[in-house]
Specification:
The protein is built from 25 helices and 20 strands. It has 680 residues and is of the alpha+beta class. A hairpin with a 2-residue loop joins β15 and β16. The longest helix is centred in the N-terminal third of the chain and has 18 residues.
Length: 680
């Protein structure tokens, strides 16, 4: 490989391809490049970002397209450009290193590494010239190169300190598995960090944090805590009516830069929307708020309209920028609204906060926060829907934001699971068809024997699957199994669970690493436990193992779940707001709700009973559909149960005790609604 030129042109990542014409001699991350850096004894400048990242574009235009800055970079460093979505394990590693240096992470991430890939200094965005209290990038380059060449002992000291600290991050702090009462206590304690006026956590920026909200909703339902319930509903109302939501096209932006949910950071990510579909569906199950149903339907419509790639899988993201401006595609001037809606413009302006002055930098971000947090009457909503369609058609003629059409296994799996649940709850069978298509795409294009790959684009599948890929595909497979009763889905889940155990487990300290055991290009394998924009792989694996134990009766799933929870449990008292996925898994393991439906496949009674189960909020549900003879494991509390009078028959089991059999969907609804407590 010629390191004296830009070598990104053969990559498939849209983010990397954005930089293929830079004068910087960018290299993709690879063992060959690392080996060349060692041979040249030249430090590495690692730049990490993603296609939809606004500040990545800013730094690219200011510095990476500048011949003077590029000359310095080429002279002083081996320059590597990395798509954080293709290698989230590397991104997590170097984000942790930056945090250990006392700096706030984010993108673009700018890290300086030894030729072996060991971090010794870093930052995020650097302007070309000093401003915003940040040094100019040219000065940074020369200063770091000088330190590397003239102060090797200081570099070595930094490397050792950071490396040791990274290793310490993987040290588990074991403890007892939290009891349900302790889990509820953690949930109630989260109230003190919530914004009781605007929803979400206090302050700005505001991220959706669906994992945390799902945990709070679970605690609220279990304990009948109205304060927790109201906090989650307030957050969903404010997000659903705020500017973070795309009221014309559907879908949520990544976060809001203000504390009102008004001004989004305009990129739209697949993973956020998948998780919010799940959360809104759960909230609708209880509240029946039509706003939540509408946002689910509109968001799924957006995903199916704008995010599907050829073959049926889903693209990663839409950019924040178009025509070089953040948000240009999404904002409106009052005159544009009046021109397109004519006599209806005043009504639209009243409901969507449109004015001559605008609500953001002289422009208008359509939002409904000011007009109320609930929907209007049916006649008004129908009129507003017609107006939105007119404006959407007009907006579609604008220059569109960049589309990152790579297929990521974990993000697709989240979307598959969300579509499955929403399809059953809102009786939209076509959504289930789309979920199956995407699932089959992943298996066909990103499956490799029983292993998974992480990323697909332009006919190329690449990058070894990571913990999150396996965890979320297991979750998707289990959801499809519960819906269909089809054993191949359960076999997929069990096969992938075995891959997780052999490739990712830490046999010494417990828990799972993010990268597989044969990963050779990381200085430290990270072990994720805190939830960020996506839930931690360990948290999702605990949930999967708990469900697999309930479905199969195999005790090794219980043991693995208990071991994983226990190895991180010592951190819970101090870090519980950042570990909701693990807590949900712990609750599921201790309080499963096992449901068995015995009925011929395809029968109307089976479909009615299945709808009754999915209509209820049962987060710890583990449902088995048996079309023939009862083949439950002996350890299952419903083992040996049979159909009554040859009718479709359901059993609902909590702990070792099963309900009396019910033979109608109406009786099943009554049984589920009358349970002693809201089970998962």
């Amino acid at each position: 490989m010629d390191l004296g030129r830009n070598n990104l042109g053969q990559e498939t990542s849209p983010y990397l391809l954005q930089h293929q014409t830079n004068p910087v001699h960018w290299q993709p991350w690879s063992p060959d490049v690392l080996a060349a850096a060692q041979q040249a004894n030249k430090p590495i400048l690692l730049s990490v970002g993603y296609a939809a990242c606004h500040w990545c574009h800013v730094m690219a235009h200011e510095s990476f397209e500048d011949n003077e800055i590029a000359g310095l970079m080429n002279e002083l460093f081996i320059n590597i450009k990395l798509d954080r979505e293709e290698r989230p394990d590397l991104d997590a590693l170097y984000q942790n290193a930056l945090a250990l240096l006392g700096q706030q992470g984010g993108w673009p991430l700018t890290m300086f590494l030894t030729p072996k890939g060991e971090p010794f200094w870093g930052g995020t965005y650097f302007p070309k010239q000093a401003k915003y209290g940040r040094p100019g990038f040219g000065d940074v380059l020369q200063s770091i190169a000088k330190i590397y060449n003239n102060e090797p002992e200081n570099v070595a000291h930094n490397v050792k300190q950071i490396n040791n600290a990274l290793l310490r991050l993987n040290n588990t702090k074991s403890g007892d598995i939290p009891l349900p009462e302790t889990i509820d206590e953690f949930g109630k304690s989260c109230l003190q960090m919530m914004d009781l006026t605007n929803g979400g956590t206090q302050g700005a920026p505001k991220f959706p944090q669906p994992a945390l909200l799902s945990f709070l909703w679970r605690c609220a339902m279990r304990t009948h805590d109205e304060a927790l319930e109201d906090t989650v509903k307030l957050t969903l109302d404010r997000m659903s009516q705020g500017g973070i939501y795309d009221h014309l096209g559907g879908g949520f932006a990544r976060y809001s830069v203000d504390d009102q949910w008004l001004v989004p950071h305009f990129e739209k990510m697949l993973y956020d929307n998948a998780q919010l579909i799940d959360l809104l569906t759960d909230a609708w199950r209880v509240s029946k708020n039509p706003l939540y149903r509408q946002r689910v339907e509109e968001t799924i419509d957006w995903i199916l309209r704008e995010m599907r790639v050829s073959g049926g899988a889903f693209a990663a993201s839409l950019d924040a920028d178009s025509e070089g401006e953040e948000g240009r595609f999404y904002v409106w001037d009052q005159s544009e609204i009046e021109k397109n809606l004519t006599s209806d413009a005043a009504l639209f302006a009243r409901y969507y906060d449109i004015s001559a002055a605008g609500n953001w930098e002289g422009h208008n971000i359509p939002n409904r926060t000011q007009s109320g947090l609930s929907l209007a009457d049916d006649e008004t909503e129908a009129a507003l829907a017609d107006m939105r369609q007119i404006l959407l058609a007009k907006r579609d003629k604008r220059v569109r934001p960049g589309w990152d059409d790579k297929v990521l296994t974990d993000w697709n799996a989240m979307t598959i699971a969300a579509l499955c649940d929403a399809a059953m709850v809102f009786r939209r069978p076509e959504w289930l068809d789309y979920a199956r298509l995407a699932y089959n795409f992943i298996k066909r294009n990103l499956g490799q024997d029983e292993k998974l790959l992480h990323s697909y684009r332009a006919g190329r599948s690449q990058h070894a699957g990571m913990l999150e890929d396996y965890a979320h595909m297991i979750r998707a497979a289990l959801r499809l199994f519960e819906i269909s009763g089809s054993m191949p889905y359960l076999r997929d889940a069990e096969n992938w669970a075995e891959q997780v155990e052999t490739q990712f487990s830490d046999p010494r300290l417990g828990g799972y690493f993010q990268s597989a055991i044969d990963s050779s290009d990381l200085v430290v394998r990270s072990k994720p436990i805190t939830d960020g924009a996506v839930p931690s792989g360990n948290g999702i694996m605990v949930q999967n193992l708990a469900k697999l134990y309930s479905l199969t009766g195999n005790a090794h799933y219980q043991t693995r779940a208990e071991t994983t929870i226990a190895c991180f449990a010592g951190r819970l008292r101090d870090q519980f707001p950042a570990m909701p996925s693990l807590l949900l898994g712990a609750e599921m393991l201790q309080n499963p709700l096992q449901i068995v439906i015995l009925a011929p496949m395809g029968s109307a009674d089976l479909y009615d009973m299945r709808r009754a189960v999915f209509a209820a909020y049962l987060p710890n549900r583990a449902m088995t559909i048996l079309p023939g003879d009862n083949t439950l494991p002996e350890s299952h509390p419903a083992f040996g149960k049979t159909r009554i009078d040859d009718k479709a028959t359901a059993y609902v089991c909590q702990g070792p005790v099963c309900s009396a059999p019910v033979t109608s969907s109406e009786d099943l609804v009554k049984l589920l609604s009358g349970l002693d407590e809201k089970p998962a």
